[in-house]
Design the sequence.
């Protein structure tokens, strides 16, 4: 899955907490949210949109709100892809240790092959379902040798 495909998929499934998400879809969306957050913070600072004493500016807050639900949804679908309940996301509330556990135990883990209790394997649709057509030699060739004489 390409970067833009992953972003489109996550926004198309804005609040879909069922089904599965591939590693590529999840990590590309994480990268996208990181880039959007950096841009929003930069604009807040450049335009002076951070209120006095506030940690984040107006644009950063709006970007965070806009990306909250799709981020939660793709995270739950990623957990489903490794055959875990979406409730495991609550482990992130245990500050750094919970996040590290989720990353190394589930988020970077390879998908469960085939269907699981949360749905079909999302990678099956991207794999070719039929073998490529065999290559045949042109007429007159047998075992790499030309038989007969070519017509002039």
Sequence:
């Amino acid at each position: 899955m390409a970067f833009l495909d992953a972003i489109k998929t996550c926004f198309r499934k804005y609040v879909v907490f069922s089904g599965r998400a591939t590693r590529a879809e999840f990590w590309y969306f994480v990268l996208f949210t990181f880039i959007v957050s950096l841009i929003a913070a930069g604009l807040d600072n450049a335009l002076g949109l951070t209120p006095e004493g506030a940690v984040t500016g107006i644009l950063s807050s709006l970007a965070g709100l806009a990306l909250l639900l799709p981020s939660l949804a793709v995270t739950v679908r990623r957990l489903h892809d490794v055959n875990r309940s979406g409730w495991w996301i609550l482990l992130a509330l245990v500050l750094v240790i919970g996040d590290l556990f989720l990353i190394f135990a589930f988020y970077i883990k390879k998908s469960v092959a085939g269907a699981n209790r949360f749905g079909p394997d999302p990678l099956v649709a991207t794999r070719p379902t039929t073998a490529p057509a065999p290559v045949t030699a042109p007429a007159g060739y047998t075992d790499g040798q030309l038989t007969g004489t070519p017509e002039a």
